[in-house]
Specification:
With about 325 residues, this protein is α+β, with helices and mostly antiparallel strands. Helix content is about 25%, strand content about 35%.
Length: about 325
């Protein structure tokens, strides 16, 4: 019987493996599906990471420790991650959602001061809120570096489609792949879009859905400031990107996607301090998993020796380092 099996080769899986090795949980096997036919969230070429994702500044009770863990992890990544730090300007629309955002900032201002440095438009009706630090990085490049580091420690991500999890007669879990069954004491499911099918027997009431996002990206100098306004403009140290927030799959027709991206560019271009046209611009389309009811990450122990780390949506860079540590510590 092996010690741990981690299912999923994206950011959540890699961070879970990393934490297992830190806890000396060995032997360890790591599998990633071979039939990934659509872009994954962990393939994003420019991921924006900041502590206030969403429509409110109300801090989550665990946000402070998660943000510290995230920053430490970002600064530890290999050069291939192209991490870039810059302030972020969040534009406030003129409707009720914008007013709620202003009120949430004012209500929680004292708590927020420990997480970031803020500045607000001094006008009678503020049009923007700035804060830093915020980061952008190449998640694909980060994963390449993490996999190389983990391979140096003796753990390689092996192609393999896990089709079933069931309690083992030996104690622990039977991890059933096509043509192979592995017995493990601990199983961590970080399989993104495959999570729901694998865990339907163990968490039948969790509603996991898919969301889709698009980015236009290309080679460019790093921006002095990121912008968020019904879309976002950000850059790594090598790549400029702009695009949409993640939305439900099928929410927009294919023809509408290009229109939405052009609208984001037209909205943000005049506001950017130094918009450098991305050379050799490319289109990236990816899918992530979210808990449709709460939009919070799904992380926890489902049964003795069985844990899950999924539904991170666009918050993976913020929450995943902390949640991976918390989950592995609970299973160890």
């Amino acid at each position: 019987m092996t010690g741990v099996v981690v299912v999923g080769g994206g950011l959540a899986g890699a961070l879970a493996v990393q934490r297992c090795l830190e806890r000396d949980l060995r032997p360890l096997q790591w599998f990633d599906a071979t039939d990934q036919d659509l872009g994954r969230g962990s393939d994003v070429p420019c991921a924006l990471v900041h502590p206030f994702v969403g429509r409110s500044f109300q801090p989550h009770p665990e946000l402070a420790v998660a943000w510290r863990d995230s920053q430490r992890w970002l600064l530890s990544l290999s050069p291939g991650a192209a991490v870039h730090r810059a302030p972020l300007r969040r534009w406030i629309d003129g409707g009720t959602a914008g007013e709620r955002l202003i009120q949430s900032y004012r209500r929680h201002r004292e708590d927020l001061a420990s997480l970031a440095e803020f500045a607000m438009d001094p006008g009678p009706r503020p049009a923007w809120i700035d804060y830093e630090p915020t980061y952008a990085f190449d998640l694909r490049g980060a994963l390449v570096g993490m996999r190389e580091q983990l391979a140096g420690e003796g753990v390689v991500c092996t192609p393999g489609n896990v089709v079933e999890l069931r309690p083992s007669e030996m104690g622990g879990w039977s991890v059933v792949l096509r043509g192979l069954t592995v017995e493990a004491r601990i199983v961590i499911v970080a399989a993104g879009r495959g999570t729901r099918a694998l865990l339907s027997d163990w968490a039948p009431n969790v509603t996991l859905g898919e969301v889709e996002g698009t980015l236009v990206y290309g080679s460019a100098a790093p921006l002095p400031r990121f912008e968020v306004d019904r879309g976002h403009l950000s850059s790594t140290s090598q790549t400029l990107a702009w695009g949409s927030s993640f939305r439900r799959v099928g929410e927009l027709a294919e023809d509408d996607t290009g229109h939405q991206l052009r609208a984001i560019e037209q909205r943000l271009r005049p506001r950017a301090a130094a918009w450098v046209p991305a050379r050799a611009a490319n289109l990236w389309v990816g899918r992530r998993v979210v808990d449709e009811r709460t939009r919070h990450p799904w992380c926890g122990v489902l049964a003795q020796g069985l844990g899950v780390l999924s539904a991170l949506g666009s918050k993976g860079g913020l929450w995943c380092p902390y949640l991976a540590r918390r989950l592995v510590d609970a299973l160890a």
